[in-house]
Amino acid sequence: MKTEVYSAVSQKENGTRLGADLIRRGQIVAFPTETVYGLGANGLDPGAVGRIFEAKGRPNDNPLILHVARKSDVKALWTSIPPVARQLMDVFWPGPLTLVYFKSDIVPDEVTAGLPTVAVRCPRHKTALALIRAAGLPVAAPSANASGKPSPTTAQHVLEDMDGKIPLILDGGPCKIGVESTVLSLTGTPRILRPGGVTKEMIEAVIGEVQLSSAVLAKLDQSEKVESPGMKYRHYAPDAEVIVVKGEARAVANRIKSEYEHYESCGFSCTILATEQTKTFYHGKNYVIIGDRDEPETLCARLFSCLRRLSGSTDVILAEEQPAVGAGMAFMNRLLHAAGFKTLQA
Ligand code: TXA
Ligand code: MG
Question: Do 272 and 149 sit in the same domain of this protein?
Answer without folding.
Answer: no
